[in-house]
Amino acid sequence: MPMxxxxxxxxxxxxxxxxxxxxxxxxxxxxxxINATPAALxxxxxxxxxxxxxxxxxxxAILHRMEAFADECFLADEDRQRAARYRQAGDRxxxxxxxxxxxxxVRPRGMSTPCSVSIGPHGKxxxxxxxxxxxxxxGRWVACAVSRDxxxxxxxxxxxxxxxxxxxxxxxxxxxxxxxxxxAPPDQRLALFKRCWTRKEAILKATGEGLSGHLHxxxxxxxxxxxxxxxxxxxxxxxxxxDQAEAAIALALNPSVPAVVAMFVGEPC
Length: 269
Known about the structure:
Layout: E1 13-17, E2 27-28, H1 38-54, E3 58-64, H2 77-84, H3 89-106, E4 118-119, E5 125-126, E6 132-138, E7 141-147, E8 152-157, H4 169-172, H5 175-183, H6 186-207, E9 228-229, E10 235-241, E11 248-253, E12 259-266
Parallel strand pairs: 2-10, 3-12
Antiparallel strand pairs: 1-12, 3-7, 4-5, 6-7, 8-11, 9-10, 10-11
């Protein structure tokens, strides 16, 4: 998969189609240390998104250890108040960076004022007159997926708070998934559980229809690298892999989208 660095300011930019994804690695590109002003960074990400959407692709921006770029000046009043209520600095930075991505990358072109996020009938955030998007964060990772074709959902997880994944198998997994995980070589089981978890969270975030009560009823076809599901919605599931596998990242999107442009920005693990 070819890599391209547009300028010195950003990490890798990569276009990925179904044929590029391997069962072992998913969509992968390295993280590099950022040397950019905030204005240059956001402009580079925005331009990459515009170019991807212009070609009919989806776009994913993934930020790692970018707390210094979190800027509350670009938040609407209600979001600034929400940010102030976070007790942990890391949670506040993640929320602000997520909103910064929405402001700089998703909002309608030509709008200069901070954008107010609207909430759909199932609780999914959206911006009127803008592409579909979804934001996820975990640990020091923040991800934003953008597509002109609904639905789209993304989940990034570090799994830092899970002590033993086996305690969650009965709650999270479909019987077929559980068998697949338990029959896999021991050194592959945790990775398969992470794949299962993030796929289901990405589906939940794409549909916004509250699958949490019956996640075990959804089979995300762990044996397949890039499955297309018909239930609970028509979705293609893909994976993005960062250096050293510190975070697991899954993407759920409209199967009609021909490719995904993934942009990783930040410091190596």
